[in-house]
Amino acid sequence: MNPSNKQVLRRDVLRGTTAAAASLLAAPALALGSRSQEGVIRVGVVGLRGRGGNHIQGFARLDGVEVVALCDVDAGVLERRASELEPGVSKADRKVAVFEDVRDMLARDDVDAVSLATPNHLHALHTIWACEAGKDVYVEKPVSHNIWEGRRMVEVAERTGRIVQSGMQSRSHRAVQESIAWLDAGGIGAPRYAQGLCYKPRKSIGLIDGPKAPPEGVNHDLWSGPREAGPVERQQYHYDWHWQFPFGNGDFGNQGVHQVDLCRRMLGVSKLPRRTVAVGGRFGYEDDGTTPNTMFAFYDLEPAPMIFEVRGLPRDLEARTNGKWGGSMDREFGLTIGSLLHAEDGRLAISSNYGRAIAYDRKGEEIRRWDGGGDHFANFIDAVRKRDPEVLNADVNEGHISAAYCHLANDSYMLGCEDSMGSIERTLGGDPEAQDAAQRFRAHLEANGVDLNEHRPTFGRVLAVDREEERYVGDDEATKLMRGTYREGFAVPGKG
User: Fold this and answer.
1) 41, 93, 149, 244: which has the fewest C-beta neighbours closer than 10 Å?
2) pLDDT in tens, 336-377
3) Taking the domain 175-208+237-372+396-483, which CATH number applies?
């Protein structure tokens, strides 16, 4: 259904919900008023748990911006966020409009922009619907669930002239901007390789006895969107979808996409790599997750390669047994989550808070540091006011390319086969950085008591990429995976 068609009939918003949801959503919502003053940007936030709360706060604090609409498929979350935004206001007197279906929000003329903090598998579809409806968009990372739909997002933003910001917040931090400018000016010489780290504690999500029904008050059909709205196959409905491939992209797409983006900027790379291979697995427990909790990927790039490493287990078996994961993750050059450029005259390190960057010489002595944050939401609003996508620090194309790097690694993994570590290390011997990553991978898992003869890692398929066309070369199976599948009524439009 085209959200820009104002003649479309109101859907049955109670479809698939319980009486609890009905009590909220059946109540008449007040029409959003006209602009309270010239120049006010009216924002609707979609997806209100967790990061969505940050979106509400981030926009509500900006001058000349009003959060006028909220949307979530979970009636309980929707009511809670509406009450937080308007404390003490009854539903009947509410000024903020509430919606279960994003298409109903997009059909309103009195919403100027939407901010999307929905699950990954909905990002592209919601962004495209919003652009077609004449809305500007702030969309969280990763902007897409697969490479093909990411390019479709870029195309629709260009065709409709909408402002689309990707949630790559580091690009608005002064420390990042200044340190990378210094790097580009030759601060530590030519790059040797970039290294991204996501050593973030991820415990088991549990193992269910059988498929479950969705929670009360959740419209599972709308949540599923492009995917089949079947039974739930995880204990925790919310958030743990990150670790199931039909909906999420593992920590590569959840956290690692930020560090991938920084590595890409350090190398000055604007296109996909020539080839990619990943090695990984889900080690240390058996649960309903399908994404790797331990993984590394090698990217064949110019002017230098990139290595990315994901670790969800702590540094050793003792820490894992004692449950003290938070402060017990491995560190590489002092970082647990971060990005490093190793160059001929030293290295640049940017940690996960993005407000600090430090340069070191060859001996590891600090030679320079940068401090300073930024406001990514404010940057988006600035671009909206000026009607200029060039103002954006992280336009949708940049978000698409960085997300695509994550998808490349996951695609390689999903198309791979189990193999011995010895065989993997021998095969990667032609790429020293990849071989070093494999040895670190082995050492980390052995320290966690993982028997790699019994639990063999998956050696991903080497994927060659046509960098101009953004497609796999000579691999129909990989091309199909890149393209994704969509349910009727929730298909991402486009050819390719």
Assistant:
1) 93
2) 999 999 999 999 999 999 999 999 999 999 999 999 999 999
3) 3.30.360.10
| Residue 304 token pair | 């230098």
pLDDT, averaged in runs of 10, over the chain (496 residues): 34 34 40 54 97 97 97 97 90 89 97 98 98 98 98 98 98 98 97 98 97 97 97 97 98 98 98 98 98 98 97 97 92 97 98 96 98 98 98 98 98 98 95 96 98 97 96 96 94 84
Burial of 343 (0-12, 13-18, 19+ CB in 10 A): buried
Q: How far apart are CA 248 and CA 254, in angstroms?
A: 8
Q: What is the C-alpha to C-alpha distance for residues 167 and 380, in angstroms, rounded to an integer?
A: 10
Selection from 170, 166, 62, 177 nearest residue 392 by Cα: 166
> In angstroms, rounded to a whole number, what is the distance separating the alpha carbons of residues 113 and 128?
13
Do the beta carbons of residue 309 and residue 200 sit within 8 Å? Answer: no
Q: What is the pLDDT of residue 496?
A: 62
**Predicted structure pTM score:** 0.93
Residue 226 amino acid letter: P
Closest alpha carbon to 65 in 36, 46, 48, 43: 43
Identify the residue whose tokens are 């129909």.
476
